[in-house]
Write a structure and sequence with these properties.
Blueprint lengths: L20 E5 L2 E11 L8 H12 L4 E6 L8 E11 L13 E6 L2 H21 L9 E12 L5 H8 L6 E10 L2 E9 L2 E6 L2 E5 L1 E6 L4 H12 L2 H18 L3 E5 L4 E5 L3 E6 L1 E5 L6 H8 L7 E2 L1 H11 L10 E6 L4 E5 L3 E5 L2 E10 L5 H11 L1 H7 L9
Helix pairs in contact: 1-6, 2-8, 3-9
The protein binds the ligand C=C(O[C@@H]1C=C(C(=O)O)C=C[C@H]1O)C(=O)O.
Ligand ISJ binds next to β6, β11 and β20.
EC number: 5.4.4.2
InterPro entries: ADC_synthase, Chorismate_C, IsoChor_synthase
Keywords: Isomerase
């Protein structure tokens, strides 16, 4: 255990100490204050063992929270706060910020559509090589990024309040390892539950298959109806739900998706979702270990997983770092909640780096996928107060 007291202290503009981390949803708020200690960092493979060793020493009241990066081999960042509060949500509105922004796309919609073409070409080629090939790519999730620089430091507490205003998401703020000595956080409004555990009961609610929300009610329902009957989106979704069922099955005495696949929505997006419920054989396994086993699911990576992750590294021009990873918390009983870190931005001082991705399967239309990623910036753009024309292609 190492103490990082000076590294991640973030002061609010009013001089009060800001929370170390926060998760706010309609189910309540879990928030930590002050940095106590940090879990020795390591890859997803060893998270379960490191968390178990931590709680053997840290005692019953301890709690760990933080972020897993996208790459399984990269090091996670989990911290223990000095104090924890778990409360019921009080949604205080926060005024929209009026900063001026400079924006840079990495890549823009055309560049992103070209990457999708390239991935579809790889899928066609591998499928043509047929069963003789060991690894045939059936899905890959490609992302793009938007770098936004404000003329003033970004107010993290206001941002978190605006991100949490949508009752269908979990607003989060977690510290990331400082870069070049400067503190940074990951802030987002994730709609996707990777895994939660309470005693022996576990839940996962994967999302895949998307359409934008519309202000006009008729257009909005038409988008939802088209998503519900889209064969491409159903295939894209089934790959994720099957992967999660297969991965969790060995840990469970009972596992099912009683409602099947249904439409779910946030303020900015429609999704196909499957609520998966299970009962663990061994209730002492930690939610962090289960989250690490699942991560990254084909909702953010692809199938086969390692093959898709390698191709993402080749096709995307940047390292995803903590985007498309997982954020969450875990207590000494192993109970906790872990979310897929999407609809998020890495924030340091005046800059926010937003990310958005979309699942590509045979039949995907490159420009439609580019438009989908534009729509997925929506939650963060609205919370930061950024207007972006390009999100409507
Ligand atoms: C990758 C993202 O979202 C994921 C991809 C989805 C899709 O391709 O339809 C839907 C929900 C998420 O699992 C993102 O928002 O960045």
């Amino acid at each position: 255990m190492s103490t990082l007291a000076s590294e991640t202290h973030i002061m609010r503009q009013d001089g009060m100490e800001a929370p170390l981390f926060a998760f706010r949803s309609a189910r309540g708020v879990v928030q930590g204050q002050g940095l106590g200690a940090a879990l020795p960092r390591g890859p997803a493979e060893t998270l379960g063992a490191r968390v178990a060793a931590f709680f053997r020493l840290a005692g019953r009241d301890a709690l760990l929270a933080g972020a897993l990066p996208f790459a399984r081999e990269a090091e996670d960042y989990l911290v223990q706060p000095r104090t924890v509060s778990r409360t019921v949500q009080e949604v205080a509105a926060a005024p929209r910020p009026d900063a001026r922004w400079q924006l840079a796309h990495e890549p823009d919609a055309a560049g992103y559509a070209a990457s999708v073409q390239r991935a579809l070409g790889i899928m066609r080629q591998e499928a043509a090589q047929g069963a003789g090939r060991r690894e045939v790519l059936t899905k890959i999730v490609l992302s793009r990024s938007l770098l936004a620089r404000a003329d003033a430091p970004i107010d993290l507490q206001g941002l978190l309040r605006r991100l949490s205003a949508d009752p269908s998401v979990t607003g989060f703020l977690v510290p990331l390892p400082p870069r070049g000595g400067a503190p940074r956080v990951l802030a987002g409004a994730t709609p996707e539950l990777l895994l939660s555990k309470t005693g022996a009961r576990i839940l996962s609610h994967p999302l895949a298959g998307s359409a934008r929300r519309e202000v006009d009610a008729a257009a909005d329902s038409a988008n939802a109806a088209a998503l519900a009957r889209s064969d491409k989106d159903r295939r894209e979704h089934a790959i994720v739900a099957d992967f999660i069922l297969d991965t969790l099955a060995p840990y469970c005495r009972q596992l099912s998706a009683p409602q099947g696949t249904t439409l779910t929505s946030t303020n900015s997006m429609w999704h196909l979702g499957t609520r998966i419920e299970g009962e663990l054989k061994d209730a002492s396994i930690s939610s962090a270990e289960l989250a690490a086993a699942l991560h990254p699911t084909p909702a953010v990576c692809g199938l086969p997983r390692a093959h898709a992750a390698r191709l993402i590294g080749e096709i995307e021009a940047y390292d995803r770092d903590f985007y498309a990873g997982a954020v969450g918390w875990c207590d000494a009983a192993g109970d906790g909640a872990w979310y897929v870190s999407i609809r998020c931005a890495e924030i340091a001082g005046n800059t926010a780096r937003l990310y958005a991705g979309a699942g590509i399967v045979p039949g995907s239309d490159p420009w439609a996928e580019a438009a989908e990623t534009g729509a997925k910036y929506g939650a963060l753009l609205a919370a930061l107060g950024i207007e972006l024309e390009e999100t409507r292609l």
